[in-house]
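tmp note - Protein kinase
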Amino acid sequence: MTPERLQSALGDAYRVQRALAGSARDAAAHAFLARDAALGTPVVVRTLPAHIVADLSAERFAREVVAARRLRHPNVAPVLDAGVVPDAGASHHGVPYWIVPFVDGASARERLRAAPGGVPLDEAVPILRDVARALDHAHDTGIVHRDLKPEHVLLSAGGAVVIDFGVAKAVDHATRDGAPPDALVAACDTALTRVAHAVGTPGYMAPEQAAADPSLDHRVDLYAWGVLAHELLTGARPAGAASIADAPPALSALVARCLERLPARRPPSARALLDALA
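out:
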């Protein structure tokens, strides 16, 4: 995706300024800094990578993702608008985009790159609390993230902000009829992926999400929160027992509960996470 092609699709409503560094490396989406022409405020235009777009109805994705407009919370970057960039190639499927407010801050993934052994406890806990607040608000609104990971947590001066609520569900609903049901779309365990009928990021998906359980609910986000917590505190995703040696026992136990394979054994809600972190 080039800035010129994106600008053509956006028309006069937004002015594309530049591609954001690191967006291709993080692999969740390509991102461009733009400015709302009417308000003069900075925004970010995000587009899906090619390996996801190949099996997608771009128009349906754009319709589905705007459900996240309902989210209004300091720790959530809501979807402001969405649409489709017409495909310049032979497939004519188009590339969906969605627009979110600009958050001035690095991602938690970038923070972890600078702290390979994990971030200090007094830094990690406020981040985890903010993410739990974002999940609590979204779940109360009926929206499950389904792709929570460090790339989707931005660290601003005002706290952590979670982006891309509703994107994984929109990808799931917008996958075109007739796409191979067992297609392996990506092998990277930190990139948004579709494997069989499961949509998410393999390294952060709860077991029921990886199994494409149609009855999955908000507790998949609590599992991903546990993976995120483990990674922030240790620098690595959990492997086997989830005990965190240098964390307070209560926090280590909370993370372990979130990582239970059975949803019923996890905390019941993001509000329960906040109560435990109080």
